[in-house]
Amino acid sequence: MPNPLTFAVPKGRILDEALPLMARAGVVPDAEFHDKKSRALSFACEGSDMRLIRVRAFDVATFVAHGAAQVGIVGSDVVEEFNYSDLYAPVDLDIGHCRLSVAEMAEKVGGPLPSHLRIASKYPNLTRRHFEKLGVQAEVVKLNGAMELAPTLGLSSRIVDLVSTGRTLKENGLVETSRILDISARLIVNRAALKTDERVAALVERFRALVAEDAGAAA
Ligand SMILES: Nc1ncnc2c1ncn2[C@@H]1O[C@H](COP(=O)(O)OP(=O)(O)OP(=O)(O)O)[C@@H](O)[C@H]1O
Ligand SMILES: O=P(O)(O)OC[C@H]1O[C@H](OP(=O)(O)OP(=O)(O)O)[C@H](O)[C@@H]1O
């Protein structure tokens, strides 16, 4: 009997969109997964020996890259930020759409870029890479949320953060000045597991077929 497959999902907002797709792929967590009072982090799946683990978005990539989970769902922002060589993102799930952008205080927009900037972000690697291309050295102040407060309070001149409707920026007096990356959620797999475990390859094919089916229905 092979070990159960471990499938990692993020706790946050992608999950609501991912669960119906997962169900169509035959990945259905047991009732305890939906019990808000439960403190469990690992859940059995209906009708299979698969196990679901619910972790922080960034940690989904870490569990999969290290082979502690074989499969996962995560935003392409996280995939690109880590750039793990052992992590492969074969299927764009066409959910969780947003973008990674630079924003600054509305009244400060304009003028030439200085050679050094202090930027608040949850994405230090993507931020440094983006500004390097512009010939700017970015000093990144790592924050884990509420980035939009940083420019107003003088912690940084700009932020690099996720934008969807743009409402959070607007309500905090910031404007989007450039777009770094268009983002959507991906099915991710551990490269070694994909080569050695047929169940991983089968799951990839199932998700790929579902996405193709939805794209066909939308066309
Ligand atoms: N406003 C948004 N609109 C659409 N997708 C978003 C938005 N914000 C984030 N996302 C996507 O959802 C993913 C998870 O975001 P979110 O921060 O809600 O998750 P989380 O698991 O609560 O994160 P954390 O571990 O930081 O608490 C992001 O990596 C991104 O791909
Ligand atoms: O453009 P909008 O539609 O306003 O969405 C953007 C906001 O969504 C995300 O935050 P989230 O709500 O996940 O909270 P967080 O600060 O805890 O990450 C992101 O970090 C922005 O703050």
TrEMBL record:
Residues 56-208 form the ATP phosphoribosyltransferase catalytic domain. It is an enzyme of class 2 (transferase). The keyword Transferase applies. InterPro entries: ATP_PRibTrfase_cat, ATP_PRibTrfase_CS, ATP_PRibTrfase_HisG, ATP_PRibTrfase_HisG_short. One of its GO terms (molecular function) is ATP phosphoribosyltransferase activity. It catalyses: 1-(5-phospho-beta-D-ribosyl)-ATP + diphosphate = 5-phospho-alpha-D-ribose 1-diphosphate + ATP. Its EC number is 2.4.2.17. It is found in: Cytoplasm. The keyword Cytoplasm applies. One of its GO terms (biological process) is L-histidine biosynthetic process. Pathway: Amino-acid biosynthesis; L-histidine biosynthesis; L-histidine from 5-phospho-alpha-D-ribose 1-diphosphate: step 1/9. Keywords: Amino-acid biosynthesis, ATP-binding, Cytoplasm, Glycosyltransferase, Histidine biosynthesis, Nucleotide-binding, Transferase. One of its GO terms (cellular component) is cytoplasm. Its main location: cytoplasm. Belongs to the ATP phosphoribosyltransferase family. Short subfamily. HAMAP family: HisG_Short. Lacks the C-terminal regulatory region which is replaced by HisZ. Catalyzes the condensation of ATP and 5-phosphoribose 1-diphosphate to form N'-(5'-phosphoribosyl)-ATP (PR-ATP). Has a crucial role in the pathway because the rate of histidine biosynthesis seems to be controlled primarily by regulation of HisG enzymatic activity. Heteromultimer composed of HisG and HisZ subunits. This is ATP phosphoribosyltransferase. The lineage of its organism: Bacteria, Pseudomonadati, Pseudomonadota, Alphaproteobacteria, Sphingomonadales. The gene is hisG.
